[in-house]
Automatic annotation (TrEMBL):
Binding-site positions, FMN: G17, A18, S19, S43, R154
Keyword Repeat found: no
UniProt protein name: Flavin prenyltransferase UbiX
Xref: Pfam families: Flavoprotein (PF02441)
Length: 226
């Protein structure tokens, strides 16, 4: 362990194969903007979704370059929308197949975990304690250690089996957070809708951010004419 890693307590961010990679990018950017350290786990299925939604091929050997390109891209697909730069120094990447990785153990120091987006397969795996890859194992560890687990499920409609899995996660102490954008914050761009969901995930994790305009009890506050 290097001097810079002593006392490091990251947020683990797991990205599963559901559609919604812009949600993950927004959460990651906001965590880094808040000065938080991040441990990133990208599932094998999510690489296909990322390639389909952004054109980015996420590679273990070039993860920093690929992550930088991903986080710089806006929700509308435009490259170089956001500046990332040195913030990537706060990220540690773990391969999804590495079950000996740090986050696989309860003794590994972490603040909690955010799964964004969470597919129904991922939800089932975590609810049943399958630990079939590092993402699921890290989530199980987060629950058993009593740390905050936020599951941003992205699927519609939801069948009965998935609903049962989500109830099981809720009963185990996780925060079940459907990726449901709201419109009262005055969204005028797709990025605003993405940032709302990312912001609610960070609210659930207890991480400060400025991703969306909060409700203040005034009707019409979200109107673009105001």
């Amino acid at each position: 362990m290097t001097a810079g890693e002593i006392g490091r307590r990251p947020w683990i961010v797991g990205v599963s194969g559901a559609s919604g990679t812009p949600y993950a990018a927004a959460v990651l950017r906001a965590l880094l903007d808040a000065g938080e350290s991040v441990d990133l786990v990208v599932s094998r299925a999510s690489r296909l979704t990322l390639l389909d939604e952004t054109g980015i091929a996420f590679r273990d050997a070039h993860w920093r370059q690929d992550l930088g390109e991903w986080l710089a891209r806006g929700a509308d697909g435009k490259p170089d929308t956001f500046a990332v730069g040195a913030a990537l120094d706060q990220v540690r990447y773990w391969s999804a197949g590495d079950l000996a990785a740090g986050p696989s153990s309860g003794s590994y120091p972490a603040k909690g975990m955010i799964i964004v987006p969470a597919s129904t397969a991922c939800v089932a795996g975590v609810a049943l304690g399958l630990s079939k890859d590092l993402l699921q194992r890290a989530a199980s560890v987060t629950l058993k250690e009593g740390r905050r687990l936020v599951v941003a499920v992205r699927e519609t409609p939801l069948n009965g089996q998935t609903l049962k899995h989500l109830v099981a996660l809720d009963e185990a102490g996780a925060v079940v957070l459907p990726a449901s954008p709201a419109f009262y914050a005055g969204a005028t761009h797709i990025q605003d809708l993405v940032d709302f969901v990312a912001g609610r995930a960070l609210d659930a994790a207890g991480v400060p951010h400025r991703l969306y305009r909060r409700w203040e009890g005034e009707l019409g506050g979200g109107s673009p004419d105001r």
